[in-house]
Amino acid sequence: MRIESAHIDAEHALRCHPASSRAAEIDAIRAIATAQDSLPALSVLAAVDAALARGERRSIAELTALAREAVRCGRRDAATAQSFAAACAVRLAD
Prior knowledge:
Blueprint: H1 3-16, H2 21-36, H3 39-53, H4 60-73, H5 78-93
C-alpha cells in the first residue's frame, strides 16, 4: 500500500465514522504506520490494543497522541520503538 493511499483511507475513516472517532483514528494511524513500516508507531499501537483489552479508557487519548507522534517522527528503528514503548509504560503506570 502506498503512503498516499493510507492517508486517504485514514481521512475517509475519520469522516465516515464520527461516532467511533477514537477507533477510526486508531485504525487510521495503524494504516499509516503499516504503510510506512513505522516500528515505533506499531509498538505504541500494541500498547493501545493491550490497554483497550484490559478495559482502560483514561489513557487512550494520550496513547493515541503518542502514536501520531511516533508516525510523524519518521524513524523506523528498534531503539526508537523501545523509547516509545517505554513512554507508553510510564503513561500507563500513572
